[in-house]
Amino acid sequence: xxxxxRYCTGCGRSExxxxxxxxxxxxxxxxxxxxxxxxxxxxxxxYRARCRDHGEATSEPAG
Amino acid sequence: xPGEATATPIRTTVTxxxxxxxxxxxxxxxxxxxxIDARARLQAAETALLDERRLLTTDExxxxxxxxxxxxxxxxxLAHQVRLAWCGPEVEVEGILSAKTGGCPEDCHFCSQSxxxxxxxxxxxxxxxxxxxxxxxxxxxxxxxxxxxxxxxxGPDEKTLRRILxxxxxxxxxxxxxxxxxxxxxxxxxxxxxxxxxxHRYNHNLETSRSYFPNVVTSHSWEExxxxxxxxxxxxxxxxxxxxxxxxxxxxxxxxxxxQLQELDPTEVPLNFLNPRPGTPLGDAQPVxxxxxxxxxALFRLGLxxxxxxxxxxxxxxxxxxxxxxxxxxxxxxxxGNYLTTLGRSADEDLQMLADxxxxxxxxxxxx
Lengths: 63, 368
Hints:
The complex is a heterodimer of chains A (63) and B (368).
Chain A: E1 39-43, E2 46-51, E3 55-56
Antiparallel strand pairs in A: 1-2, 2-3
Chain B: E1 13-15, E2 32-34, H1 35-51, H2 58-65, H3 72-87, E3 92-100, H4 129-141, E4 146-151, H5 158-175, E5 178-182, H6 188-196, E6 201-203, H7 222-234, E7 238-240, E8 243-245, H8 251-264, E9 268-273, H9 290-303, E10 308-311, H10 315-319, H11 323-327, E11 333-335, H12 347-356
Parallel strand pairs in B: 3-4, 3-11, 4-5, 5-6, 6-7, 8-9, 9-10, 10-11
Antiparallel strand pairs in B: 1-2
């Protein structure tokens, strides 16, 4: 059974290397599924974070 | 209030090197200021600003900046009265949008959007008109009167300028909001075209004093920024020219900046506090201590009594529970919702704060 590595949304390193360095008021910057850098659009009322391979990322702030 | 007491004052002596001043405040030396001296400085400022209605000199501001921590509440109280007397009770609410993010060729050491630093921010192209209009509608729904379109660029090329000139009337006509733009350094002709194109206010920050600027930006000069600010005013746009506190500048340099802003005479001064960004040269800097932030909000109001003094980036990180106190220390405008690349606290919290403070929301253009 394959295990799925997850990645820190603040720095893109695997969870084994980073327990989560994203700050409360930062949107996610890296994809939790692959660690790839996200395309993030921040607007006054929210943000959209999109991974090239995994589509729209979580709408929860990084933490 | 400063100046109201008539009884014999109790003389106390405090030193500026008290241990709770926070790590950000460069100590100008062990200057001792007694309570009589402190109250005299405050009284002189009150007379100048409320009776004579004149600007303070940088020497007077430097004297106020030296006051020990225990006098910050008095500075704040005076600043609030000055704000009410010069600007009225209204608070202007604005939303901002990073319409073109990252990839900036400049090297501003505080900025996560510079291509020269390895930061988590991925460069993205100019948003399409639909996305910009949607963000403007969000801004309007949050109760704002102003919407600022921000681009992370050195200055606009012809294609970018044309896109801005297309967007501005679209946003204004669809939402009824005043439209501001921040697109870097401008030539005289570009400033003219933006003014003629309906840009209500143009943002171009000095960020820091002339003497400290080379420590934080080397890819362009303070003088280039100043020239753009003057062009903005020359072509009929309101000038929005802000400061960023907490990059290692001294108190004297903060006062120097206030003096330089007095000379530029902007309509609005957004007051940012450094939110250290990972990967930037200032990424490991210590945020400004909350009480220091209150001191400098008050000093900016006392130095710039008639401007729209706006809470901008970093207030959540720096002030935390003291954000409402900033509103009674000289602030009379705020950015609501999110910032360019970071998130803000909820608009509901800000609007509730203003309601609790009995501060009406309103556009300040034309009032000042």
